[in-house]
Amino acid sequence: MEQLELFRVIADQYKKFEFKLERCLMTASTLESLRAAHSRSDSFMGVPVEIAQIDAIWFSRPSAGGSTAWEIRLVSPTPLSLLERLPNSATDEEHEQKLKEMEAHLMDLISHRKEAIEEIIAENAGAPDDEDDDFDDDDLDDSRPASGTPRKKGNGLGK
């Protein structure tokens, strides 16, 4: 799915739960796509667009106790978001600082996931039979039990 379409799909999902679309964060490549598709690149879906290192959307909705729930959602097929309740009494400066902290936290989460995936890939380099394995690739054959006798088929009820 095209990234701009994914922005729309995610925004539509959140609107169903009465979240208000506040702003879009876009990478340079997504912003290029926006410029190619629309004459204006400073707004998308009626909200401001900011250039960023990630594609994400900011949403808000009223919350209990004189606060507003703010959620930043990564624009990705795999859902990842952070939610924070901010007091309505917060100054604009405090509010923006908290949102920037949440953006940084999301970036940190993404970075750690990426590192973990790269580590798994590196550990599995040389497959199918790494020397570091604790077993032989033949042990992975599920068609026969460890005893070497063929496995019976069926539900085990003897019928």
Overview features:
159 residues; alpha+beta; 6 strands; 35% helix
Describe the protein's architecture and organization.
With 159 residues, the chain is α+β, with helices and mostly antiparallel strands. The protein has one domain (3-123). It is 35% helix and 23% strand. The protein contains 3 helices and 6 strands; from the N terminus they run αβαβββββα. It has a 6-stranded mixed sheet, sandwiched between helices. The chain is globular. 13% of the residues are buried. Residues 151-156 have low confidence and may be disordered.
Total E-strand runs:
6
Oligomer: single chain
Radius of gyration: 24 Å
Number of H- or I-type helical stretches: 3
What is the secondary structure topology, with strand pairs?
Layout: H1 3-15, E1 20-26, H2 28-37, E2 43-44, E3 47-51, E4 56-63, E5 67-74, E6 81-87, H3 92-123
Parallel strand pairs: 1-3
Antiparallel strand pairs: 1-4, 2-3, 4-5, 5-6
